[in-house]
Specification:
Helices cover 67% and strands 0% of the residues. With 206 residues, the chain is mostly helical. The chain has two domains: 54 residues, Arc Repressor Mutant, subunit A; 139 residues, Tetracycline Repressor, domain 2, CATH 1.10.357.10. Helix 5 packs parallel to helix 8. The N and C termini lie far apart (64 Å).
Length: 206
Amino acid sequence: MGIAERREREREEVRRKILDAARELFATEGYERVTMRRIADAIEYSPTALYHHFEDKNALVDALCEEDFGRLLGALLTRELPSDPIEQIRQMGRAYAGFGLENPNHYRYMFMTPMEFKASHDHELSQSGERAFGLLRSAVENAIAGGRFRRGDALTIAQVLWSGLHGVVALLITYDPKQFPHGPAAPDLVDQVIDAGIRGFLATTH
């Protein structure tokens, strides 16, 4: 390995340490309370070293969002989606929940950590995040067009489906099983939430 390659690898290793530490701190201590100096202290580097990799905290957040939403998008696209839009929604829901349950710290950072949105982004932080939600919205649009879902605003329906799924994932990664009312969570709770959401928008019920 040449000098240039070694330096690039070392640079990437430092960048990885910064991102992992920032994600953990944002999720556990809150975005507002975490400074670049706090992140530097966590990995025992100087704040100057962080600024060699990221212009400021917003740039670091951008990198984290794109990386983590990229992982989520990859989880949604791991398997070829079925042609039936209802089954697409069901499969994507399971993949989404699986990602959250397998990566709780990533999930807390992505969806459970309040952050400022940079005005230049106009509410969008991640292209991968937009693509991931776009898959769900597209499936909903196809379900409406095919007469499987009752007519309605596709964006709103997609938001409702996602909101229910987010709720169950957030509970499962936050609550101890003993905290669930009157007993632990049902082993198929995720599937039941997905199916209940779908049934609520079907054009015909059985």
